[in-house]
Amino acid sequence: MALGASAAMLVPAVPAAAAAPAPADPLAAFHHQKLRWTSCHMKELDDAGARCADVTVPLDYAKPHGRTIKIAISRLTAKGPRLGTMLINGGGPGPAIDMPPYIRDITPKAGPRFDLVGMDPRGLGRSAPVDCGWPSGTWIRSAGLTGRSFDASVTFARTLTQRCVTKYGSFLSHISTRNIARDMDVVRAALGEKKISYNGASYGTYLGAVYAAMFPGRLDRTVLDSNVDPDRWTGRLLQDGEQANELALAHWADWTSRRDATYHLGRTRADVLGTVRAVIARSSRSPLLVGPYKVDDSTIPTVLFNLLADDRDPHRTALAEAVADLNRAAHGEHVPAKGALDESLKFLLTATDSAYGSGQAAIICGDAPAPRDIATYRRDVRRGIARHPIFGALGEAITPCAFWPSPRESLTKVRTTLPSLLVGATGDTRTIYTGSQALHRDLKGSRLITLKADVHAPYQASYGNTCVSGAVDSYLLTGRLPAADATCS
């Protein structure tokens, strides 16, 4: 008998080690909860046939048996052969529960094939909303041109924070993108899905990237539109966008100069931009009267920023009409507030949208720290104005994050594999194009579609570029990414 065989027969059998029991899922009760679907009580959702539900999640994921909150979702079920569930986020950060009918409409081939789910992130909309009773719908405000304006911007940002801390205290520490990503995963599990598809724009691209890093392998078809560089996510959100806004405004000035007979703002780019700078300078000396509003150098750059996100003619017209009215006010007229200017000033200077601005700040300031030293902002604003005379004081301005309680967690390092389709516009004024390039590098296996235009979120804004919309629709329908990156003119 051969030695090898004999030895094998004489060695006593060793019993296999018992498999270690799988660790108990601390979130099992949340993952397996039964959802109760009801009417949404929102006309656009109810008319489309959507249904809504509340998903219970822990307030603090480190203490899953402690206090809970409700996350509001909507669902518009698929028609025809179903491709899965797609979660939607439209950016902001802002509510997204109302988005499924819109996404179905702008993606006419692929949209109806998914169960489309809108989710209000915690702190916003119907999901444990934060409303600090702000006198404004936003914390985004320029530091202005003068020392007096800068001091007022510091007081404004500090007061906004104090209102939130006084009203909500430690609750604010649980509002962050990482916790919103955890909420997303509970929603995924509660819907009975091993994987979900995802459709996010602007801030929604950051949320999607964070989710992909925290929960690898749980995203299916993923579209990210106008992308945030995760390494540049900060409480000074507009700091990198000054040059893009100055350039987009120059392109708008070219367009407006050709219509001087209508708007009377100047016959050349330089003339139109000179008019804009003169209006801001005039408002820094004493506020302009526009309807019931007093408009100064802290608000005019924000109005321009709000109205500059799209280079199509209707949007350029709205901006030209707004600047024409501001120019009349700068020459002593008390002009009525109308159109896009009225909407923008109402958002900036009244408490109508306090909940939006409060929740947005809670998420952004809950994610990333900002410098605490006031002198840092004063120095940066001076430098910003020298480099970018219209938007420098906006991009470098102090924000509530300078006074906000410190974030509980560090920012997520996004370096992961996510075969996904990214869309970015070269002239994007809100999430600048370098953000799309950076996220493309961070997400291994992704493809980038570049649009040469001054527009924010060209896919979700339904910009009408068939090259972009065709690429998105084809990917969502087939699950196949383009063979290479592409540029759309």
TrEMBL record:
<dbReference type="InterPro" id="IPR000073">
    <property type="entry name" value="AB_hydrolase_1"/>
</dbReference>
<keyword id="KW-0378">Hydrolase</keyword>
<feature type="domain" description="Peptidase S33 tripeptidyl aminopeptidase-like C-terminal">
    <location>
        <begin position="399"/>
        <end position="488"/>
    </location>
</feature>
<dbReference type="Pfam" id="PF00561">
    <property type="entry name" value="Abhydrolase_1"/>
</dbReference>
<dbReference type="InterPro" id="IPR013595">
    <property type="entry name" value="Pept_S33_TAP-like_C"/>
</dbReference>
<dbReference type="InterPro" id="IPR051601">
    <property type="entry name" value="Serine_prot/Carboxylest_S33"/>
</dbReference>
<comment type="similarity">
    <text>Belongs to the peptidase S33 family.</text>
</comment>
<dbReference type="InterPro" id="IPR029058">
    <property type="entry name" value="AB_hydrolase_fold"/>
</dbReference>
<feature type="signal peptide">
    <location>
        <begin position="1"/>
        <end position="24"/>
    </location>
</feature>
<protein>
    <submittedName>
        <fullName>Alpha/beta hydrolase</fullName>
    </submittedName>
</protein>
<dbReference type="GO" id="GO:0016787">
    <property type="term" value="F:hydrolase activity"/>
</dbReference>
<keyword id="KW-0732">Signal</keyword>
<feature type="domain" description="AB hydrolase-1">
    <location>
        <begin position="85"/>
        <end position="302"/>
    </location>
</feature>
<dbReference type="Pfam" id="PF08386">
    <property type="entry name" value="Abhydrolase_4"/>
</dbReference>
